[in-house]
Amino acid sequence: MIAKSKYIQDRKKLLGRLPTINIDVPDFIYIATDNARCPKSDVYVKEGDHVNCCELIGMRHGAFFDQPIHSTVSGTFLGFEEHYHRSGKKVKFIKIQNDHLDTLDPSVKTRTKEEVEALTKEDFTQIIKDCASVGLGGSSFPTYIKFQTKEKIDTIIINGIECEPYVTADHRLMLEEPENVIEGLELIMKAFSAKRGLICVKNKYNDIKQVYKELLRRYPNSNIELCPVGNFYPQGWEIAMIKGATGINVKSGELPAKYGIMNFNVSTVAGIRQAILFNKPVIERLIAVTGDGINYPSNFKVRVGTPIKYLIEKCGGYKNPDIPKVFILGGPMMGASLPTDDTIATKTVTSVIVLNKPNEEKEEPCIRCGSCVYSCPVGLEPVQIMNAVKAMDKDRVKKLNPLKCIECGLCTYSCTSSIKVTDFVRRAKIIAKLP
Fold this sequence. Notes:
By secondary structure, the chain is of the alpha/beta class. It is built from 15 helices and 17 strands.
């Protein structure tokens, strides 16, 4: 296990050094009508209509918010197709034939410095809402909701930790677009009238530390600091990050805003900058495509809506194509495993991991070693939760408080009996929500 972990970290280190490749936008782009947070939608265009890049073409509907749908290319709406979504489910996608002109919608406009200075917090909130800004670290949580807090925010924390194995998209963004990160943070600090900004990275990322320490000298009055934190997993979990950066221990179930803190993923910050300065939604993002199942692991700048098959082709195709593959969107610990490569790069896909499928590890009986308990960052007892789920004891499940679980996957990773403990805890979370 230790040797395997070192191999994975070495691969991540090597991929993190490779520059991002700007690939051609494919002939057909696919935009999801629904997602994990929004199960319903309205589409505003009909088959045969021409659409502009960044044009509003629909609206997703969630339980307590709506989310605009924008075209990421200019071209012709051809209808709908079903493909796998990063949530692991098959959903309906809008199919657009790309005309390769990238004709921008009139709604995209550059704001002058004076216009930006005049923006209020309410203006920021509306712009970010209209541009459909979401958590690009993978959460897909609507960003504008964070801007609606009534709490006094003193500190903005940027999460550039990217602690999962294999994943390198945020790492490359921080190295290749550092000015965009800093300018985005300055805009967020302005919106909240925050006094301090912290950019959190793992202490071992010397390349990022060198770049930002030098670059921040050009922003002497910004009150922005680089904040190296621990190298462990899950240091990127917001509670662990805030503790490492500020010493503040945010209690489970409470929002960081109560402590005067607001945190954002680094890719989200770059997206916010684009929305505020240009009134432009996120139409492309950095994605790491890696794993031992492809020939050339790469970092790509990808147009949202690109088929994953297209990215795999750009990596030289599959290595050992006769061996079955495992497909993971997102990190291997918290991402979604899909049964096929028939899936699409959405805004919140940080990575595509293609692995040669290993021989199934035989699941053994639990030996009550306690590894899952010792490894749980939120102090749960995963083995007890698993037993309660197996017994269908709803009351016992609720008492064990599985809703605290952040689904980091450490209980499964550390299990000496190869039991998929995390899957039982996920089931327990569903049971705990039942009346």
